[in-house]
Amino acid sequence: MKEVLVDFQPVGRRAQVAAGQTILAAAQQLGLALGAGGLTAPCGGRGLCGRCRVRVAAGDAGEPTPAERRFLKPEQLEQGYRLACQAVIQGPLKVEIPPESMLGVQKLQVEGLDVAVVPEAPVKRYNLPLTRTTIENPRPLWQQVAGELEATYGLERPEIDFNLALVTEPMAAGGTGVVTVRGKEVINIYAGRPAPPPLGLAVDLGTTKVAGFLINLETGATLAADGIMNPQIAYGEDVMARLGYALEGEAAYRRLQEVAIEGLNRLAATLAGKAGVTTADIEEAVIVGNTAMHHLLLHLPVEQLARAPYVPALTIPVEVKARSLGLNFSPGAYVYLQPVIAGFVGGDHVAMILGSRLDEARKVTLGLDIGTNTEIVLSYGGKMLSCSCASGPAFEGAHIAQGMRAITGAIAAVRLSDDGREVYWESIGGVPPLGICGSGILDAVAELYRTGVLNASGRLDLNHPRVRRPAEGGPAEFLLVPAEETGIDSDLVVTQKDISEIQLAKAAIASGTLLLLEAAGLTVADLEEVVVAGAFGTHLKLESAITIGMFPKLPLSAFRQVGNAAGTGARLALLSMAERQRGETIARQVSYIELMTRPSFQEVFMKSLLLP
Amino acid sequence: MAVLEEIKEALMAGNANKVKELTQKALDEGIAPTTIINDGLIAAMNIIGVKFKNNEVYVPEVLVAARAMHAGMDVVKPLLAGGAMEDKGTLVIGTVKGDLHDIGKNLVIMMMEGAGFKVIDLGIDVPVEKFVQAVEEHKPQLVGISALLTSTMMQMKKTVEGLAAYRDKIKIMVGGAPVTQKFADEIGADGYAPDAASAVDLARQLLAS
Question: Where is the 2Fe-2S ferredoxin-type domain (chain A) (predicted)?
Fold first, then answer.
């Protein structure tokens, strides 16, 4: 296949790529599907979402496909707008990525509540006196280390990580050596160079976002925290699309694992850079993730997870050498993955329960971690029931006509005057808005309902002055921000279809809550506390979630928005063996409820579609 | 028969309790069950179906309306003598093996029943053999196959292949979020419908051809 020059703007990437592939494939190959400024492809490039819109400013990209005709108006096609996943490169091209199709700089949530814990890490440091290896003292380094550990610290028959021996100078130079021991195994040594404090990495590996924490394992202090987008997102936005990609073949599956590892290495390097250390100093890591992320990272079989009965391959905790996954940490470092509970309730849920202490809740407490899949736990009288509901990506901005992630330019809060005629909004970064994110669309729907612009079944009032039906057909829409106030060249609207997406999401969460209560023999009236975890859960306005019936109607004082509790749980499991074991106990204690097999599911779900 | 108009209104507003109440009221007024069904419940559901096709209403409203329709149906159905409903044809329908999703499929069922078809619902996670068995037993004119997951789409192909021996007697319709016309053609289905309302049109078309 001939190579042609493709010029991507505004990122300014020019490269020779093979003709005959789609623009999206070329962008992915150039790494333009990863990170800020890259091209988004939520549906995994199947022509189903219409989000990878680009403008072909010059060159031939073939005839528009039916999918493109569905998502693009004739005048847009005329202007050169195409879907990157559909348009096939025929010759040299100049491609513009419009702001709304770009992955932005994410407002990633990495903080989380801090729980006091006594550091008691799985790795321990020992200082050993070393004697220079010479002909008079013919004892090489490791012989001295093993001898000292036995003689001075009573560690019987210590082992040495083989790979560590391969990369360590075997001759002792004298002075003090600092070794790191995990169980009986020496996993790291600092001889003849100063030892930094023992470092650990805690990671919350989400479907969309990856949050990382670099921790001093002796003091428990968080040295650096940061987040990145999960690079696998270029291969499908939700868990199912990604599992589907993995099932396309071994090469595809390997690719998914590689990009995840690459992302983790990049995150670790960023954190190390911030803290003035190197990733080679990281001696222990804990990763928590949903079951799919867990399986895709470890390359476990996923067919039974992608299809009914939707079961994990492995639910026991996994401990492997970091290097066996390709993670560039200290040569002997281990990675611990918190156990998963069920196909859609993973180690992140265990970490959420651990991090928010729901396992010891004295009150009847509901814990929600809202995402594309929302996991809910009900803790009552020492028992825990969990479920997972398919709330969909609407709160991440997907499936919403002008939806976007919670990044600069997104409308994050909306309020209406009582007659719904005046709209007050806030955008992230205070810039002219480009779209609307989860908390913004939630507010909008709640306010439309509060002001009577929406009825209980979710229909927009066509007689309202801000509601209109577009001349070219399509759903009715509520004018949120007129074009002249936005940062794009069109009005920002909330469509009837957007509202239906929010109804489906809220119905999933509300019916999950009701069915868990039902399974426990309780009702909403028995609920005493609600813990809301996760990034979206922290930024959403509780009143709005209650108004539309997504959250149970309890006084606001009964709610706690705890931030990234899963990240906190991961840090706890990293810092303390007792906490790690507590997490394993939680995983065994939680009973999983499969909602779809509950006889009342259909009825409860349909009822929950109504507002509130 | 103002009560039938009231039933239609309540149904379109998704008020199940009111539909139930009004249906009982209509019976008390002596209106025939088939009239209540055809001119009240199904008439309203058809209006919703058209609005759905025109993007005026979306899935949640259709589901809410369908729930209201069922509330009314539950009142009148026991009073129907066998064969009182017109029979436009029989559809055997199910979600493929490996897939537990049924809301979309149930929408199709409601629309098809609303249009006068007899529907045999095989439910979810339906293996190929069960489809075959149902075709043997119920002798339908139509078979509907649903899949919601990209990971279960290929099971659809296997199901179509499994029904190869009956293709002169049945028409196969496929649908579900990841399914496209192109995919339907590739696996050799007779037709594809992007949504529940078009499924009814497709069914009529397939039976006419």
Answer: 2-101
> What pLDDT band is residue A343 in, cutting at 50, 70 and 90?
very high
Least CA distance to A461: which residue of chain B?
Answer: B56
Domain definitions of chain A by residue range: 3-101, 123-191, 199-337
Answer whether residue A109 shows pLDDT above 60. Answer: no
Are residue B55 and residue B97 in the same domain, yes or no? no
A326-358 burial string, b = 16+ CB within 10 Å, else e? ebbbbbbbbbbbbbbbbbbbbbbbbbbbbbbbb
- Claim to verify: residue B97 and residue B188 sit in the same structural domain: yes
Tell me which chain B residues have a C-beta less than 8 angstroms from the C-beta of A608. Answer: none
Nearest to B151 among A240, A475, A605 (CB): A240
* CATH code of residue B51: 1.10.1240.10
Closest in B55, B125, B177 to A308, CB measured: B125
Q: Judge contact between A77 and A68, C-beta under 8 A.
A: yes
SS3 A383: strand
Distance between CA atoms of B97 and B94, rounded to whole angstroms?
9
Beta-carbon separation of A244 and B61 below 8 A: no
What chain A residue is nearest to B67 in terms of C-alpha separation? A606
At A172-186, the pLDDT tens digits run 998 999 999 999 999
**Per-residue b or e along B59-84, where b marks 16 or more CB atoms closer than 10 Å to that residue's CB:** bbbbbbbbbbbbbbbebbeeeeeeee
Query: In chain A, what residues touch B184 (CB-CB under 8 Å)?
Result: none
Chain B nearest C-alpha distance from A268 (Å): 32
Q: A149 versus B113: which is more confidently predicted?
A: A149
Q: Which two tokens stand for residue B118?
A: 């007899």
- Phi, psi of A234, rounded to the nearest 5 degrees: -65, -15
Flag whether B85 is in a domain: no
Please list every residue in chain B whose beta carbon sits closer than 8 Å to the beta carbon of residue A607.
67
Q: How many CB atoms are located within 10 Å of the residue A599 CB? A: 7
CA A207, CA A390: separation in Å to the nearest integer?
14
Residue B95 with chain A: CB contacts under 8 Å: none
Q: For residue A317, what are its two tokens?
A: 């905790």
pLDDT value of position A104: 45
Highest mean pLDDT: which range of A25-29, A281-285, A424-428, A561-565: A281-285
Question: In which region does residue A575 sit, left (phi positive, over 0), alpha (psi from -120 to 50) or beta (all else)?
Answer: alpha
Are B150 and A46 a contacting pair at CB < 8 A?
A: yes
Task: Determine which of A253, A606, A608 to mutate to test the interface with B (most B C-beta atoms within 10 Å).
Answer: A606
- Quick check: bond before A612 cis, omega within 30? yes
Could you list the residue range(s) of the whole structural domain that residue B203 is in? 90-208
Q: A199-337 belongs to which homologous superfamily?
A: Domain of unknown function (DUF4445) (3.30.420.480)
Task: Show which residues on chain A lie within 8 Å of chain B, measured between beta carbons.
Answer: 44, 46, 48, 66, 240-241, 243-244, 247, 303, 306-308, 310, 455-459, 473-476, 496-497, 499-500, 503-504, 507, 596-597, 602-603, 605-607, 609-610
**Would you call A60 exposed, middle or buried from its count of C-beta atoms within 10 A (0-12, 13-18, 19+)?**
middle
What pLDDT is attached to residue A43?
Answer: 67
Compute the 3-state secondary structure of chain A and give helix, strand, coil in percent, each to the nearest 5.
35, 25, 40
Residue A157 — pLDDT band, cuts 50, 70, 90? very high
CB contact under 8 A, A610 and B155: no
The pLDDT tens digits of the residues spanning A4-27 come to: 988 887 666 777 888 999 998 888
- Fold held by A3-101: Ubiquitin-like (UB roll) (3.10.20)
More confident site: A161 or B154: A161
Q: What percent of chain A has pLDDT over 70?
A: 94
Say if the Cβ atoms of A308 and B178 lie within 8 Å. Answer: no
